[in-house]
Every structure is written in structure tokens, then in C-alpha cells.
């Protein structure tokens, strides 16, 4: 839960930085760019912390594990982008509130995917 929370902080902070400094979230392309950049920051942080602290992975095939991790996270990125497009560009909600709300769905799905597909202990 702590690592998921910290990953959310990384995601939100980097998203807010990109939308404040460079990108306009009212433009659909720039909204997706900000979301993608924050995703890269958050997933990089999440892989390292999930591997070490949450699942205490002992896998020797780190490349395969990392590819599975990033693949699972791409699926939640697509869900996040769909939700953000709906909330911000179609329903015209505030992008920061939308990003915050969507993070709860993403965090839950990321944990489930990591537990079931990425860091699963083989018996």
C-alpha cells in the first residue's frame, strides 16, 4: 500500500509538473502526452520498488520480469487514458481532480496484475 501510494505521488507530481510547465491538458494530444510522461516516471519507480519491497522478487530473469511488468502497466495506461479522455475532454471535468480520481482505479489494477502475472511465485 505504501509503495502504491508513493507511486501515485510520483505519477501525480510529474503529471502536475508537465501540465503546469509545458502542456495544456485541454488539448487532447497534450493531455495524453502529459499522462504518458507521468506514466513513464511512475512505472520506472514502481518496478524497482515493487520488485524489491512489495513482492521481494528473487527472479534471475530480470529482463523477462521487467517486460511482463511494463506490459501489464501498459494495459492500465490505456484504461487511464480512456478515463482521462472521457472525464477531461468529453465531460469537461478538471484534469487534476480527474487524474487523482483515476489513480485509485489504476493502483488497484496494477497491484492485481503484478500479483497475478508479474511477480507470481511458481510452485
From TrEMBL:
<comment type="similarity">
    <text>Belongs to the GtrA family.</text>
</comment>
<feature type="domain" description="GtrA/DPMS transmembrane">
    <location>
        <begin position="2"/>
        <end position="119"/>
    </location>
</feature>
<keyword id="KW-0812">Transmembrane</keyword>
<dbReference type="InterPro" id="IPR051401">
    <property type="entry name" value="GtrA_CellWall_Glycosyl"/>
</dbReference>
<dbReference type="GO" id="GO:0005886">
    <property type="term" value="C:plasma membrane"/>
</dbReference>
<keyword id="KW-0472">Membrane</keyword>
<dbReference type="InterPro" id="IPR007267">
    <property type="entry name" value="GtrA_DPMS_TM"/>
</dbReference>
<feature type="transmembrane region" description="Helical">
    <location>
        <begin position="100"/>
        <end position="119"/>
    </location>
</feature>
<protein>
    <submittedName>
        <fullName>GtrA family protein</fullName>
    </submittedName>
</protein>
<dbReference type="GO" id="GO:0000271">
    <property type="term" value="P:polysaccharide biosynthetic process"/>
</dbReference>
<feature type="transmembrane region" description="Helical">
    <location>
        <begin position="70"/>
        <end position="94"/>
    </location>
</feature>
<dbReference type="Pfam" id="PF04138">
    <property type="entry name" value="GtrA_DPMS_TM"/>
</dbReference>
<keyword id="KW-1133">Transmembrane helix</keyword>
<feature type="transmembrane region" description="Helical">
    <location>
        <begin position="29"/>
        <end position="49"/>
    </location>
</feature>
Amino acid at each position: 500500500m505504501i509503495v502504491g501510494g508513493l507511486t501515485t505521488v510520483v505519477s501525480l507530481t510529474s503529471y502536475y509538473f508537465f501540465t503546469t510547465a509545458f502542456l495544456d491538458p485541454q488539448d487532447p494530444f497534450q493531455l495524453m502526452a502529459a499522462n504518458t510522461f507521468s506514466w513513464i516516471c511512475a512505472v520506472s519507480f514502481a518496478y524497482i520498488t515493487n520488485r524489491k519491497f512489495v513482492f521481494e522478487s528473487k527472479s534471475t530473469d530480470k529482463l523477462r520480469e521487467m517486460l511482463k511488468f511494463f506490459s501489464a502497466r501498459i494495459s492500465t495506461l490505456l484504461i487511464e487514458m480512456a478515463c482521462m479522455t472521457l472525464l477531461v475532454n468529453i465531460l469537461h471535468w478538471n484534469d487534476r481532480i480527474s487524474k487523482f480520481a483515476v489513480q485509485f482505479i489504476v493502483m488497484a489494477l496494477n497491484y492485481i496484475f503484478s500479483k497475478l502475472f508479474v511477480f507470481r511465485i511458481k510452485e
